[in-house]
Amino acid sequence: MDVGRPVPAPFGPPASSVPTLDFERLKAKISTYLRPEDVGRVEAAYHFSAAAHTGQYRISGEPYITHPVAVTELVAEWNLDAQALTAALLHDVMEDTSVTKAEITERFGRVTAELVDGLSKLDRIEFRSQEEAQAENFRKMLLAMATDLRVILIKLADRLHNMRTLDYVRPAKRRRIARETLEIYAPIANRLGLNGLYRELQELSFMHKYPLRYQVLSKAIKAARGNRREVVGKVLVALEARLPQWGISAEIQGREKHLYGIYRKMIEKRLSFSQVLDIYGFRVIVPDVPSCYLTIGSLHALYKPVPGKFKDYIAIPKANGYQSLHTTLIGPYGTPVEVQVRTRQMHHVAESGVASHWLYKDDESSLSELHQKTHSWLQSLIDLQSASAEATEFLEHVKIDLFPSEVYAFTPKGRILSLQRGATPVDFAYAVHTDIGNRCVACRVNGDLVPLRTELRNGDQVEIITAAHAGPNPAWLAYVRTGKARAQIRHFLKSAQHDEAVALGERLLNQALREHGLTLGQISMFAWDRFLGDAGVRDRREMFADIGLGKRLPVIVARRVAEAQDQESGRPNVIKPKPLGAVLIRGSEGTAVQLAKCCHPIPGDDIIATIRKGQGLEVHVDDCPVVARRRGDRGRWIDVGWEPAEGRLFEAAIRVLTIDNRGVLAKVAAAIADADANILNVTMDVEQAPYTALQFVLEVENRVHLARVIRAVRVQPSVTRVSRIKSDAKR
């Protein structure tokens, strides 16, 4: 979202030479690396944009053209090509003026027009809420970024300039934009390795989201800076003296940690500012990789390292291509000092990330690897898009994946996968391949079988065990951490529910058609086309799914289908109705058929079902009190019966009245187990002395199995009465 929207400005200044001077500075910059004809093309884009934005002003009162020029200056810092610079100058003309994509294509080419289009919002589409509109705009931008990385580089420059000039925006909007920048744009900059941009966006967001906290912390840093100057000076002198002794030629840079980083550490670790000691750090830049490790050895000989604080991002780079060695040392007066060691090439990538492609074209080998990683991440956005039905859902998944990966796990063959902290074997399985995740049933971590909800740690070796006919469990959504895993699980479950609903809807409609003396097989294509056209439905599968999910009543659909068939065949609708018969269910269909929790129907019970809108068929015992209360609405009740089957288990509840003797619960539980039933839940109510009521929820095969369990419990000496619980009075 562009926060610098143009406004009519009755108070605005007259046209001045300021925009022209800004462009002359930009022109001087791009002339250092672009050919003269490309500079001319960018200048033409400037004049075109200036003319389009004539009479428009920013909230600050400046001519609006100053914003595109400033954005283009930022883009030029990465030495981007003429197409990107042209798109940066034109990035708002499609939104804020009458200029069309066709005009841009004609004047500046198709590629530039596509870049501008990727940066433009979906202003002409109606959305139900601001959140949905924002999510859809992000989806468009991120997918355009997956096609051409220059889209997001221009958008990040656009956001940075808007954040730098946010003072003129009203406070509430300022906080909202700052929060959005922290949640989306700063993490994207980090994911692309644009470290300098990432830090500045964080600092500006912190300043505008929490202005008072920013001011207090800023003053505290200034005060601490004087107190710790002596420590920093001593460390710097010691490093400059020690490294040459080990034959290391190095450039040493002191750096002060950013305010937002200190603030986040205080929040996450519940520390006061006085407890955050490592607010200063050093960066050591050396000629080659062997010198990096030699430098770490010399530093650890000079000062004691803090155990567990050494991190090797050279051997295992971060997902954004970042490479360095990190260590924390106990410096003078016991003050911790953080040191980063890297090569000059690593420093380029750390500061410029994917923009290094345009800045440092002599590092082709390392840059190609970085671009390969970036391409893999961008491809994952396409995968998330295909698995996410809603824009808000897509944005949620992207947000999850934007936070830094901190856990590194290994496949049995030694492949390294980086995941979010808190990731589980299910996340790991989906990171390997979507099919592996969908068929995952168990896992081994470091050779031991562990639950799928186990959090992975750095260095874990994970082996995923799959089964051919397995599928995702909805419970996985409670503990998966990665956006890919969450998106693929939801996609699979939605697809499975749709397929089940289609099959159920087909059976329900076939049953309802019998009242009209018809079956689905007798309905002609002409009748179907006529009915579907009148109903506004695309195809039969969609109609069946609507019936299965309770969005349409089968009796009404059957009547209209029969009328369409009668019109086609010319027969009078006076066919003697046939008995409807019952729809047979297995009871284990999943989302499309659900067994009511109020009465726990099991095979052998007389059952009836109701269609619940959006949820499919809910099956009750025929004498369930819920059924008695709702009998009046006959259109939603369906006659159902049990399909013969073996091996499936169903929930049933029993109440056991016992004399309160020691060990009675254990004896009753043992009797239930001896009858081959599994106990899912047990509760205990104290009755009038000396009796106690035990309520069990069991898994049984059918009524016969339940009767066998009841007989086994009834013969226990302390048991006085056993009964099945068929209804829940609370419902």
From TrEMBL:
It comes from the Bacteria. One of its GO terms (molecular function) is guanosine-3',5'-bis(diphosphate) 3'-diphosphatase activity. This is Bifunctional (P)ppGpp synthetase/guanosine-3',5'-bis(Diphosphate) 3'-pyrophosphohydrolase. Residues 64-163 form the HD domain. Residues 405-466 form the TGS domain. In eubacteria ppGpp (guanosine 3'-diphosphate 5'-diphosphate) is a mediator of the stringent response that coordinates a variety of cellular activities in response to changes in nutritional abundance. Residues 653-727 form the ACT domain. GO terms for cellular component: plasma membrane. GO terms for biological process: guanosine tetraphosphate metabolic process; nucleobase-containing small molecule interconversion; response to starvation. SUPFAM superfamilies: ACT-like, HD-domain/PDEase-like, Nucleotidyltransferase, TGS-like. It comes from Denitromonas iodatirespirans. Belongs to the relA/spoT family.
